[in-house]
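SAMPLE LOG
Freezer: B-3
Tube label: C17
Construct: single chain, 310 aa
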Amino acid sequence: MTIWHPEGAGMRVRGAVAGVLACVALAWASLAQGAEQLIRYPAGVAPGDFRYAYPVRMLQLALDKTAHEYGPARATQAPQPMTTARIMAELGRGELLDVASFPAEHGLAQQFVPVPICIRKGILGIRLLLIDGRRQAEFSAIHDLAGLKKLTAGQGRDWVDTRILQGNGFKVETTASYEGLFAMLMSGRFDFFPRGVYEPFMEVQQHAQQMPHLALEKTLALYYPSPDFFWVRKGNEALAERLRKGLEAAVADGSYEKLFQREFAETIRTAHLDQRRILQMDNPEYKAMPHAGDARYWLADQQSTAKSRP
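STRUCTURE (predicted):
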């Protein structure tokens, strides 16, 4: 005769439930490990902003290099256009962005966590000038910083480059509108628009129809040390560490250099830096240069080139 014991039955039920929950937890953990994590990066001030494409590719490279340790992840861009000020605000909140890239400056480290490996080997600090091409003869006659400082530069209101130029004694006209800078240049509101060495060729092409006299100045370049890093919000140090490990791995195995060369080698050749007067400036916003002198992290002849011309 079988006698039913409520206590024993309850124990068996609880044991069965615990077993089911354990299986569910295990399945969820396995699913979570295999799930692709989305890492959100800005899209720029307008859809298709070409300046934001390369950092996404470098970000993806760093994520791929660490997938074995952290799991799969995909770099994606936020759908909303954002100014630099908005990017900083959203990165701090962490609701729309996980990571962004900015030129290094001391004040940023108080707001965000840097990944101290320059994603463009320092070429952001090599600045070519956009001008009204009808004024080329005026710029060809300039041989030093003192001569260039007689003119007015144009830059974004919230760009660190604005403060760098001002710190070196330049007059700078600013606006919050990236597109507005081109119109201001061509209307004579300022005289020249310094751009990272990889930027002006595409910008001239994009504005050729509306601004046929927008041109790349042919004889000058500015140089100041300007590493651009990935930055994440405070509290997300795990992502910063993952990106640091990923970039270090990419530098070590050569994939960082391969991506950099594929993106910028032709543009740097087209800039003809050896034929320009390179005017060297200080960067009062950032002094510490990680991996200084290591050609794996910096364009090999960048600093020597900058010092070789008056």
